[in-house]
């Protein structure tokens, strides 16, 4: 028989102590860790479409400049000719790998929810609430997992979800950081040759001491953020392998920095790469590129 709302309120009032004990049992870290996993999933959901948009934007750029010749470089020396568009496909290929890595990390996360587990990872406290009914405990775990939007709960946990999950997610983000720094570095090198430049605003000052300069500030910022993002991977690894038995709290402070900062750095890198002005038609010097190719490469003719 279903209990009416008024009856429920009366029951809670009359049995407050028992209700509070039942609601809080086993909750030492369960709620916080489940919430973190939800945050991680939502953060990935924000990044993935932005990364896809970057790939699409670069694809348009590569298509538009597929026939503009430029010098290829090996060992930092002039080699055979490639095209501006072909060089952009190198970046696209790596970004597609980043997209795959992040999608895989998200898929794995969805099947590893901590769910209804107790203070040491067992379900003994919930079993006590349901008076030894294992089926009800299993059903509770399934309902909590489904309600949170995950496909399955982890088969075994400690007081926390495995920090290996953090490692896998930060690995994927750090790998993208490497790609971001690589793209930024290529643009900076090409800017030295005046083959590819960032747009220069009308009131922009190139340098505090040399106003005529056109420094590739966006790409330098991209390299800086990509570098710190790549280095977060080691922090996640150290945190995972330093955990003791059912858990220790030395993971708390560092995760409060590494997890949000990793996503923020990745988002900032995507903003820089996706910036429409950075890939504007006017910032490619096709004529100068062809001239440099014909005068520098011995195989140009």
CATH fold-type name: Fumarase C, Chain A, domain 2
Count the DSSP helices. 10
Q: Which CATH-level-2 architecture?
A: Up-down Bundle
Q: Strand arrangement, largest sheet?
A: 1-2
Anisotropy-based shape: elongated
Number of domain units:
1
Question: What's the total count of β strands?
Answer: 2
Q: Please identify the structural class as seen in this structure.
A: mainly alpha
Q: Major sheet: size, sense and barrel closure?
A: 2 strands, antiparallel
Produce a short descriptive summary.
By secondary structure, the chain is mainly α.
What report would you give on this structure?
It is elongated and about 85 Å long. The protein has a two-stranded antiparallel sheet with strand order 1-2. It contains ten helices and two strands. The longest helix has 35 residues. It has a single domain, classed as Fumarase/aspartase (Central domain) (Fumarase C, Chain A, domain 2), CATH 1.20.200. By secondary structure, the chain is mainly alpha-helical. Helix 3 runs antiparallel to helix 4.
Throw out a few tags for this protein.
301 residues; mainly alpha; Fumarase C, Chain A, domain 2; two-stranded antiparallel sheet; 2 strands
Compile the SSE list and pairings:
Blueprint lengths: L4 H10 L1 H9 L5 H35 L4 E6 L2 E7 H27 L13 H6 L4 H14 L16 H29 L24 H25 L10 H23 L11 H11 L5
Helix pairs in contact: 3-4, 3-9, 4-7, 7-8, 7-9, 8-9
